[in-house]
Amino acid sequence: xxxxxxxxxxxxxxxxxxxxxxxxxxxxxxxxxxxxxxxxxxxxxxxxxxxxxxxxxxxxxxxxxxxxxxxxxxxxxxxxxxxxxxxxxxxxxxxxxxxxxxxxxxxxxxxxxxxxxxxxxxxxxxxxxxxxxxxxxxxxxxxxxxxxxxxxxxxxxxxxxxxxxxxxxxxxxxxxxxxxxxxxxxxxxxxxxxxxxxxxxxxxxxxxxxxxxxxxxxxxxxxxxxxxxxxxxxxxxxxxxxxxxxxxxxxxxxxxxxxxxxxxxxxxxxxxxxxxxxxxxxxxxxxxxxxxxxxxxxxxxxxxxxxxxxxxxxxxxxxxxxxxxxxxxxxxxxxxxxxxxxxxxxxxxxxxxxxxxxxxxxxxxxxxxxxxxxxxxxxxxxxxxxxxxxxxxxxxxxxxxxxxxxxxxxxxxxxxxxxxxxxxxxxxxxxxxxxxxxxxxxxxxxxxxxxxxxxxxxxxxxxxxxxxxxxxxxxxxxxxxxxxxxxxxxxxxxx
Length: 495
Description:
By secondary structure, the chain is of the alpha+beta class. 37% of the residues lie in helices and 14% in strands.
């Protein structure tokens, strides 16, 4: 057992920030002495003293032998891994590296169609061929859940030469599928299970939370420590616990997708967040769950609102015990607002502008809120009161949502892949008005953000239902990202 009280990287950074010396190395602001005054007024000057580069005492992220190595070993033990890598380019680079380390050009990888755009980037970089699975879909709530063990087994029977399976656990809505069963099936083919666990870094620290991906049998998982724990934005970790994955390939892949000038502020925040959870995680998560359950109970009693929960009655696609919805992260609160005659986008704007409450993201029918260790009782009271006021003051008679819904488009439209994502991304392309792109092959990533799940990707055939949906999202206040034309008047297609 390692001493989880230690923070080797944080301590080394603190010592170097305080050491009197004449700096003739990057960054150019020289420990804040050259920083602009407006930035200093906002952040103060102390933080810049710790904005250092790879000095001798601070180790090297790509060949760690000192304090970074020690910090990563402590993290591996705390999160239940055999080896851990710190990430300064977010979980995005971890997902990309996972695909690069397990798949080459032409290799097949099985993954859900509702993956994050980082997985599509991994396909483009690696040249891997995606075998997409449709996740289970709740047509009443218009929410896609997890892929099922049966779907994975069927895909592996049809593609026994696949090099890996990748899944999302939990989804952006906090839904967890039957990861243990998926791991058992995947391992029968002696290939690794890769998990995008960006929103599940807290699972290892409380028994009332869903089973952590590594404990459920995942070979590799990527976690955004900044999303739900106490690290700085962009700070993430990649963990493995398997001999099915070559650690050297992971390290080399990360060198391709991470900055060669890593921020020690981000790295130190990972060290500190790990110590915080190793020492106080259960207490912090108990308090967080208490706040979340209080919010869930009170909001579910507000007329016109409902909350996503594991005990919801089954609908098409399945809820409450199906293998696509086996568990729910209770700290993730999804509120259905369509009963108020409002779209999620409208409700989000009202809450933000009128009541100073900001959700994580909005969709056509829902608002999703992240309740974490940083939230307070006052936050929960403000959230509940704001939703109460929303229901009283802004309720309309009805809400007419024109089909197709987003998740329905995403999971049931077929999305024929004519070229591999890599081939389409690097193909000669042309930019056309939207009206001229139906039945053409998309050459760019197009997704409403957040959550950053592509509705179109390079290599897919563009269809009218998809175009109609994206235009509907934009008209209702959503933001279309990934494509070159952010106004979404044109699209790049393969020429």
